[in-house]
Amino acid sequence: MTMKRYFSSCNNYGKLVLLIGFLLAVPLAVLPFYPDELHYAPAFLIPSLASIILGLVLCLILKHDESCLQRWRTMQYGSLTVLFAWSYGFFAGALPFVISGQLTFIQALFEAISGWTTTGLSVMDVNVTPRIFLFHRSFMQFCGGLGFVMVMVMFIQGKHSMNLYNAEGHPDKLLPNLKRTARIILIMYLSYLAGGTLLYNVFGMNTFESLLHAMSSLSTGGFSTRVDSIGAYGSLAIEAVTIALMLIGTTNFAVLLLITKMKFKRVQRVSEVRFMLVLIAFFVPVIASALFSGLYMSAAESIRIALFNVVSAISTTGYSTVTYVGWPPFSIGILILLMLIGGGIGSTAGGIKLTRVYLLLRMTGENIRKRLTPARNVMAPSYYKAQGKMPIDSDSVADTIGFISCYLGIYIIGALLLTLTADCNLTEAMFEFASALGTVGLSIGLTGPATGTATLIVEMVGMVLGRLEIFIVLIGIYSGLSILKQSLQKTLTKKR
Questions:
Q1: Closest C-alpha among 465, 359, 358 to residue 410
Q2: pLDDT per residue over 3-17, tens digit each?
């Protein structure tokens, strides 16, 4: 049996653990350029080799055991597998920080979750963090933007791959063949990465920082090598490159494919793209006006700062050019709103997502029209995706309302919990938890090396729910408990 056929027949749990093991070894590629950090190699080798061995063991043990899962509905199986992969990724990604003594376990877990979920909140002091760990953080964001299943499918496509692809939050298959879809996305992703790295380098960043910022911008992650983030460079050109990469990262992969094929007319018709541009065009001058009148900046400086931070918030990237101390509460409120809205469905961004908010507004508008003109025949509303015109039917209405209700409920609970754990006011708690739940990474100052364990746990829960879109987590936990319950019942029955 060839290596490819062997891994194709493996259980998906084994494949995903193997994949994580290989990904953990990638930061070792930094060591030839920074040999003074060679003593950190075991911190990556140990979890990498352990994951590879565990993955091979799972492949052997569970190789012929997937038939027992056929009783479970597709979504349940996919959600459970995806939840397992991400949970293991969080744990394994934290180990290098712990083994090297860089962070405590809770801090390391927070940093890993923030990395894989492309959030960008951090408890590390980047001024003293070794370069291999800076690379590890950004590389987690780069891979987390694609997702573990997406990366796995690029190399090996199993019989459950389409299930897992959908369960991980990738709604669009760009090409008839799933593996080709994954590979075309990777090619686009790497092309934008190369272009972004080159432009950063041209405009003044060194090569290492250029690569890391390009990875984090494109994945809408937001980890930086500087305490003051992009603002540390004070460069309009670097800010422009970052804005472009953030917009690319927050755009649906299917739309990016249309852009690559230069089908700009079809791109212009996509509802979430138009909605995003309208939000940016509306809120940039609004925030710029508030900053100009509140902080006495020049008009040009106000517009520059407003544009960057509005794009950073709505793309859920989390890069910043200024601190938010002294910002008018009105402007802070707008950033919270944009972080809650988030980016495009099927992109690397978090949040409620542009399409869901657009659908909610369309449904609200249609409802008002019906009440004002009840006798008028109203055509069924629709919206445009990259694939064409789609009707707004009862299923999409129910899914949209259900998700937004859960999201806002979790947001309210999380913000209230932060007021208790972080000893802050409600506005600060709302901002910080909106950033965590939306996988944004902007901070008003509550998250850092001195942040308490309880606050970190609340934010970690928010980041996981935000990246895996709530229902995947709930279905995965429910499926796992159901399988465990049935296993226990079978064991008890046999004993009797």
A1: 465
A2: 444 444 457 788 888
